[in-house]
Amino acid sequence: MGTIMKTTKYLAALLFMSLAIVGCSSSSAELEVYNHHFFAMDTLVELTGHTDDPQKAEEAFQAAQKEVERLEKLLSAHIEGSDVYNITNNAGIEPVKVSEETFNLLEKGKNYGEKTEGRFDITIGPLLEAYSWSNQVVPSEKEVEHLKELVDYNKLVLDNEKNTAFLETEGMKLDLGAIAKGYIVDKAAEEMMEHGIKYGSVNGGGDVYLMDKPDGTPWRIGVQHPRMERGNFIGVVNTNSNSVVTSGDYERYFMADDIRVHHIIDPKKGYPSQKIQSVTISAPNATIADTLSTALFNYDPEQAVDFVEEIDEVEVLIVDSEGNVFKSSNMKEKFQPNQSLE
């Protein structure tokens, strides 16, 4: 299989992250804008706070960073000793007692599996590990068919009384990446607000939580054009929602026999969906936005919009494989397209 790897300067990509929030400087002469960056969850985390007290900003940033690092150690599939690691390590053997936070997130993940009829599945670990984007590896059809048998959220048994989680079949593996990052971003924002930061944002590798703006106006969030260099937007979302998250097939991929092998795998098919280029979700929190931006990738665009129309306070913008744009009813009012592309 001939392959062409898409290469991107990693640091340059990280620098472009800040361009997603358009025009976010403080409008008040009394407030200064403070920023803090650190690396976690395999990405750059960017904290921004508007305040007149630099000490308050520093304390809020440090508290948020500690929370991110604590939760990563709890929820990562790859950190030895984490709750998720321990559940996978005991698949087919015995239930594992986990923290209340982990248990609640597992419940949410399993519920989304049911709501999406398996298009979102937190037991997708075996399939994800079979691909390698750095080494340009695609599993064989035979291997995919075998691994699909190990992906089934129904085989994740949760015991509310004992706070335990159990993967019924040996070889099953949890991966909370498509829900945990949003959850961690939410918790980081909570820490900042509890430490006195009312205005600001948290950006965890594109999962964005938005607090209030000092001037009370909506946030303007640029939506990356999925087929142009970073920093080129198909338009801007004007929103008062607390979170906007975009998932795209351009974020991590390689080309194999003219097929884009990206990182969002359809749990039911075992391969990356080829129907959609990007999904942008506006939601009350990053947990919801993170989860749905992944799940809806595995729908037809029209089905995805219909799915969102049934959820309060959630909006979606989709770019399909042909570059057509689909929007939920409320998103139509908030999306301002880039006129230069029309």
From TrEMBL:
GO molecular function: metal ion binding; transferase activity
EC number(s) stated in the UniProt entry for this protein: 2.7.1.180
Entry keywords, A to Z: Cell inner membrane, Cell membrane, FAD, Flavoprotein, Lipoprotein, Magnesium, Membrane, Metal-binding, Signal, Transferase
Cofactor binding: number and manner: Magnesium. Can also use manganese.
Cofactor(s) in the UniProt record: Mg(2+); Mn(2+)
Domain of life: Bacteria
PROSITE patterns: PROKAR_LIPOPROTEIN
Gene3D superfamilies in UniProt: ApbE-like domains
Membrane-topology descriptor: Lipid-anchor
SUPFAM superfamilies reported for this sequence: ApbE-like
GO cellular component: plasma membrane
Reaction catalysed by this enzyme: L-threonyl-[protein] + FAD = FMN-L-threonyl-[protein] + AMP + H(+)
Cleaved signal peptide residues: 1-29
EC class name: transferase
Predominant location category: membrane
Subcellular location: Cell inner membrane
Positions that bind Mg(2+): 178, 290, 294
Its biological purpose: Flavin transferase that catalyzes the transfer of the FMN moiety of FAD and its covalent binding to the hydroxyl group of a threonine residue in a target flavoprotein.
Family (UniProt): Belongs to the ApbE family.
Protein name: FAD:protein FMN transferase
Organism: Proteinivorax tanatarense
